[in-house]
Amino acid sequence: MIHVPTAPWLHHLWDILAWTASLIGARWVYRHRRASVATLARQTEPSYFLCLGFGAAAGAWVAGSSNTLRAALPIFSHSIAGALAGGIVAVELWKWRNRVHRSTGGPFVIPLSLGIIVGRWGCLFAGLADETYGIPTQLPWGVEMGDGIARHPVQIYESLSIAVFLAIYWTAVIRQLGWARRYGFHAFVLFYAVQRFGWEFLKPYPKLLGPLNLFHLITLGLAAYAIVWIVRGDRTGLDDRAQGSALHFPRADDEPVRDLRGDGAGQDHHRG
Fold this sequence. Notes:
Order of helices and strands: EHHHHHEEHHEEH
Number of helices: 8
Largest sheet: 3 strands, mixed
Strand content: under 5%
Shape: globular
Low-confidence stretches: 237-252, 254-272
Radius of gyration: 20 Å
Number of domains: 1
Helix content: 55-70%
Structural class: mainly alpha
């Protein structure tokens, strides 16, 4: 059993470190993946980012609080899974309203991954008050956070899982592998959803549907969303190659495009 010194204020410190890591990742993307940033700039306008921010914040607090308010000690909280789901819903609604049919998530993969990798350690050091701890375990790496009980360090499990994905994805980006270009964001969403679904069985959250808690259901939705995008992209790619044309839907995350709206207008910019 490993004793972990905890204090609720440490969560805020690690939140700052997580945001810093995300900004460093965003700067790397801006400097080394200019095509993806240029595509995002062409496809969107300020309202895109407003919708993204509002959706992520709303999803984070609604999902987190919906879970913890049902616990033995009800509290308001926020959730990474909820933020991801809320941001996706808001962006997809914005894209539908503005007739943007391409993937816009590529530039966010590295910043999001770094934020999760660092931020999850804040959940660990915040201790029991954070209510993100795992169920008891007899494993030698079980962590004790002040109550004398060894628990699964689920926060570390998730941090390390996303670190593995980031290493694979970053390597694929540098090598310009096709999957990272075509659906890197949706590969991230799928990987996040699968690993988070598994770790949820090691948390004492209240059940919502049989053995599943709220975050099981959210991650199932995230996985379904990612799979639909990946499958549709592959099928469209096969159809387009057979017709000798470029990909129509979804456009590669980091591939500059001319017809961004997919309506044949052939415009370099879309504002509307």
